Structures are given as structure tokens and as C-alpha cells.
Amino acid sequence: MIELQHVGVERQGRPILVNVDFEVDRGEFAFLVGPTGSGKSTILRLMIFDVRPTRGVVFVGEYDSQSIREPDIPYLRRRVGVVFQDFKLLRDRTVYENVALALEVTGAKRSGVKRKTLSILSAVDLVHKRDVYPDTLSGGERQRVAIARALVNDPFVLLADEPTANLDPETTEQVMKIFAEVNARGTAVIMATHDLQMVERYGRRTLRLVDGRIREDMGLVKTIGRP
Amino acid sequence: MGLLLAFREAFRGFWRTGMVGLISIATIGASLLVLGVFGQVVAGGYALIDRLQERVEVDIYFRDGVHRRRALALARDIEALPGIAEVNYLDQEAAAQEFQDMFGAGMLNALSENPLPVSLRVRMKPGSDLPQRLQAVSNVVGNNKDVESVDVGETWVGALERFVQVITGVGLLLGSVLCLACGFAVSNTAKLMVLAQREAIEIMRLVGATGSTVRLTFLVGGAMQGCAGGFLASMGQSYASDWWTARVPDLAFDPSIDLNFWLVVLGTVLGVVGSWASLNRVLSAVSIK
Fold first, then answer.
1. H-helix or E-strand containing A195?
2. Which of B28, B221, B250, B281 could hold B10 in an S-S bridge, CB 3.0 to 4.6 Å?
3. CA dihedral sign of residues B212, B9, B228, B191
4. What's the pLDDT score for residue A196?
5. Contact A139, A166 (CB under 8 A)
6. In this complex, do A48 and B206 lie within 8 Å of one another by their Cβ atoms?
7. DSSP 8-class letter at B250
8. Does any CB of chain B come closer than 8 Å to the CB of residue A99?
9. What does the pLDDT look like over B214-267, one tens digit per residue?
């Protein structure tokens, strides 16, 4: 479903990723761990074709980085949900509008937009806050809005770039619970984080990235606190 | 849904640009107003020239004793030329009557006989090729041995023609400069709109908005600004037209052109073109981070 084959990325002559190889199957949950600047975000951006590899090939669904045409990228992104550490919510739009935007840009009908948006807001327990603006929400609530937006188009994979970095432990638990539920419904989840304690606690497949290389690809190592 | 979304996002973008957006509309409005007023002056000038050209006459005076049949034959030859409104034959009596109507009977009565020659009076249709048509009449007349002299208003017609050419040239030049100014104003505002909407564009792309959806937003924004500027210009132009007509009715603007409508159309088109010109460059600088 998602595969990186001998992927290298350079920026201004400096290597960001070096010969990265891994594969994530449908319905899998994988942590991508590594220190800040190790290339975790670059790997996630490769998966939405916001960055192109200097070497190697990235396969996502039926697309690959060598043959995908620029006009096809938006259609891929509609099937890949992305969540960021800084939420990336529009401050001048309500919770409902932020989530609905992901459907509206696809040309969905208004009735469908309303039904699906309210449904996903209900799933993340934010339907009662649909008319408020992001600035009035807590960090956890904002991240749940961002997750709702990422999931509203029923993606086959959810990419999360340090989604709990700004959250307290209790809120982190809530977010991880949502990811576990999403994953249980068959959506693959790839979560980049530098929080090794959390990774150990949830015990899922872990890809460890050091200096732009995958150093370890560990399968399920623990089951304690598994989401 | 796409167009609805584009309008909504365009409104948001315009709201975010704030005063800059309003200044842009004012700039477009002012440029189009100058263009519109100048366009009406040119149109009025052409209308005046048409009216003056309708008065252009060629008087052909025959030698004494010319036979009526030969004069009328020449009249038919001239009538056959293109762009001739009418040819009137004036015998000596008609010429005398006309003279008396203009200057009184005293002078003619003092003479023992009527000295006025038989003549043809040729009236031309208005049109830009008037000098060429006058030349054609001269050519036909010049070969006729019965003709004593010809009075053609060539000098002022030629001057008029040159004046029209100058007005048209200045109009085209000024129009081009003003159109460029409008396009420049809109393209700058479009750039600011893109920068103000940078975050929204980034997120729209992240969730799968196509390039055309994003572009449509800004093209609609440009069209809205241009349309608003055109509307302002048309209001100003209407006021200027009424003011001018009330003071100089002889040089009233040509009512056959619905300039107000065309100013709005031109503003809208310039808005779209100006946005398009700046979009490719600015959008490529916005990426997901």
C-alpha cells in the first residue's frame, strides 16, 4: 500500500534521507521515531508527494513518485489524511467549516458535506463545538478537529506528524485512542514522533530513523497499553 | 459547489486584504473612468466629424452656354460614384434665387443680365474615406471640358481627417496604458490576496484541492474586484456624461455606445487577466510545511 524503495532526498546538496526502504500494509499501525531533524516529516511529505525523492521510488496506493502527474496529486491527497503538530486549522473558520473544507474542495454536494462533517465531528466528540472558532478550543480539541478533517474523506492511511507533541498526557491518551479506533476500522496509521516512551507504551511496529537512515524496523515489541 | 466555494473563498480573501483591496478597486475604477471619459470624447469627436462630413459639398460650375443635357449627363456620372448622397442641378434662375435668399435682390437687380453660372451641387455621405471619394469626383469632373471650376472643401476635410487620426492614436495609446495600469493594480492585489490566504491555500492543497480549484478562487476574486472597479467607473462616467451634455449639447457623447456596460465588462476581464498573470508565480511559492 505504501512503500519506499531505496529513497534518498537531498536539499541544497545535503542528504536528508539516505537509501530508505520500508513498506506499510493496509490496516497497519507504525511509529516513525527519531530525533528532531532526522527526516521523519520529510518521509511523511514524500507520502503525499509534497516532496519528491532525489533517488528511489515512493509508492502510495496506485500511484508512484516516478509516474504520478501533478494534476493527480490532489486526488491522492483526498485519500491520505494528514495531521500535524501545529494542527493547521484556519482561525477565521468554525470547527464545522474547517472540517467541511476537506469535503468542499472535492466538489461534494452540500447535503453530503453536512452529513459527513457532523458524523465525523460526532466521532471525535466535538459536534457540540461545531460553531466555535479554533482559538477558543484547548490543544486536545484542536487536534481532534484536525483529525476529523483528516478522516472526513475516509482515507486509507492517516499520517500524523508529531500529533501529540503539544499535548498533555491525558489529551495524548485521547488522541491515541482515536488513532486506535481509526486503525481498528482498517485505516493504516503512520505516526511520526520523538517520544520513545510513548512508543514503548503502545508497542507497535516501529521504524527508527537516525541521520536520514532507517536503523531499525521493529515489529510488535510490546502489548502493554496497546491502543 | 466549486464556483460557490470559489466565491466564498474570494470574499474571505478580499476581506483579509482589507484596505489594499479597496485601494485596488479605487485604482481600477479611476483608470477605467479616465478611459471611459476619453472613450466618450473620442466617440463624441467621431459623431461631430460625421455631422461635419454630412455638410461637405462640392460645387461644380459650368462654362457659359453649357447645354442642360450635358450638365445632367455629368450629374448622372457623379451620382454613379460610391458615397454620393445627392447631386442637385442648379440652373441660372435657381442660382439667382439662392443668391437673393442669401444676400437680397439689390445686387442682382443692378446688373443687366444674370452672371451666375449653371452648377451642380454634390453632397457627400459621411465616412472615413471622404477624401478619396472627393478625389474621385474631382477626377470625373476634371476630364469634362464644360466645367469652368470646382470648389471642393478639401483643405478642412483633410485637416479633419488628420485630427481624427491623432485622436484615435492618442486614444489607443492612452487606453493601452490605462488597461496595463488596471491589470497591474489587480495583479498586485491578487498577489496580496494569495499571501493573505497562504495558510488557507496550504490547507486546501493538503486536503486535496486541485490547482484549478485554488486558481478559480483567485480568478473569481480578481473578477469581483475588476467588476466593482468597472461599476465605480461607469457611475463616474455617467455623471461626467450628464455634466458634459448639459454644458456642450453640440458635442454630446455618442448615445449608441453603452459605455457603462462595457466598462464593467472591461473591468471584469482586466481583473481576471491581472489575477491570472500573478497567480502562477505566487502560487508556486506556497507549499505545505
1. none
2. B221
3. negative
4. 86
5. yes
6. yes
7. G
8. no
9. 888 888 888 888 899 999 999 998 888 888 888 877 666 655 567 888 889 988
Q: Rg of chain A's alpha carbons, rounded to an integer? A: 17
User: Which class for B275: exposed (0-12), middle (13-18), buried (19 or more C-beta within 10 A)?
Assistant: buried
Cell 500535524 appears where? A84
| Tens-place pLDDT, residues A62-77 | 999 999 998 999 999 9
Residues A30, A217 contacting (CB under 8 angstroms)? no
pLDDT at position B77 over 80: yes
Mean per-residue pLDDT for A4-26?
91
| The dihedral formed by the CA atoms of A60, A62, A67 and A71, expressed in degrees to the nearest 10 | -90
Task: Read off the C-alpha cell for B261.
Answer: 456596460
Asked if residues B127 and B109 have their Cβ atoms less than 8 Å apart, the reply is no
Interchain proximity B210–A45, CB inside 8 Å: no
Name the residue type at position B68. R
pLDDT tens figures, A87-96: 899 988 999 9
Neighbouring CB atoms inside 10 A of B104's CB total: 10
Find the DSSP H helices in B197-283. Answer: 198-206, 211-247, 259-283
* H-assigned helices in A136-195: 139-151, 169-184
Identify the contact set of chain B against chain A, taking CB-CB distances under 8 A.
1-2, 5, 12, 16, 199-200, 202-211, 213, 287-288
Nearest to A5 by CA among A50, A66, A48: A66
**Any B CB within 8 A of A200 CB:** no
B202 contacts in A (CB within 8 Å)?
Answer: 88
pLDDT in tens, B151-188: 876 566 667 667 777 877 887 888 788 778 777 777 77
Between A45, A88, A92, which is nearest B12 by CB?
A: A92
- Does the structure's ipTM exceed the value 0.90? no
Residue B240 CA to residue B232 CA, distance in Å, equals 12
